[in-house]
Amino acid sequence: MGAGHAHKLYRHGHSPVHALPPHTKLAAVFAFVLVVVSTPREAMWAFALYAALLATVAYAARVPPGFLLKRLLIEVPFVAFAVLMPFVAQGERVDVLGLSLSVNGLWGAWNVLAKGTLGVAASVLLASTTELRELLLGLQRLKLPPLLVQIASFMIRYGDVIADEMRRMRIARESRGFEARGVRSWGVLAKSAGALFIRSYERGERVHLAMVSRGYAGSMPVIDEVTASRAQWSYALALPFAALLVCVLGWTL
């Protein structure tokens, strides 16, 4: 998979969670999210227990609350959508602080907020304790289609190349006195976007030709063989199994 690739969500550490093989963490997070989504929305106490489980994982991973909360801001658009649901949904109405709100809309908003927030938090914890290269190795270990893994790998690496090219083009424009102000600047920005597309396409062709000349035949060599012991699987799956117990109680109580 090539050299290591750090990302902004990753927080370097030496905790037990960091040390787990990536495919065990991927499987645990996927199973945890499935359990959370399967929980009845009326069991509000269950979601509090899920949050407590994630807080325990964050403590074990030594991820500060501020670090986690700051990255949860990515779900703000979904929060805005959920806030609107009680106003636009149909069905029985109830007055809250002088506002007529839909009961189904309130439950729907709670359902989206609770399950969405827990899912995003679990994903952030995964990204905070696993490097991108390890995530790709974990996907490969979980037998995902090799072509999808390769596309994800190239996308991650080439995204930084394009971002760096955009930065150089912006510096070049500003060094020539250009400032984006109003509609008149759109023409210059459009030409820059076109030039960026052409440069990226040409660079992609050169990279592909270089790979083919070095023997690339549609599959990437596996440099590191990632394995996990039974104890590591048990440690990783403790989160979804505990969540599953809460979910069962939520359906039966």
From TrEMBL:
CDD domains, sorted: EcfT
Keyword Transmembrane: yes
Signal sequence, start to end: none
Encoding gene per record: cbiQ
UniProt superkingdom: Bacteria
Annotated localization: Cell membrane
Keywords from the named record: Cell membrane, Membrane, Transmembrane, Transmembrane helix
A Pfam entry, by short name: CbiQ
Principal localisation: membrane
Protein name per UniProt: Cobalt ECF transporter T component CbiQ
